[in-house]
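Aggregate trends can hide what the representation actually does to any particular protein. For completeness, the protein is quoted in full, as a sequence line and a line of structure tokens.
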Amino acid sequence: MLLVLILAVIPFGAGFAVKILWWVALAVLVVWLLGFVMRSTSAGGGRGRWYRW
């Protein structure tokens, strides 16, 4: 009976982790898109990068 309970909990835990990862990916995408919209202009008048790499 314990084995059946463990086998039932594993897919639930994996599904919960995948759902959390989707929300994290969505948040990173929003931050990435905001970086392109809100980047500042450089001294030469061109558009600068909002990140260092």
In short: The chain is about 70% helix and 0% strand. Residues 1 and 7 are 10 Å apart (CA to CA). The chain has a mean pLDDT of 76. The first helix runs from residue 2 to 37.
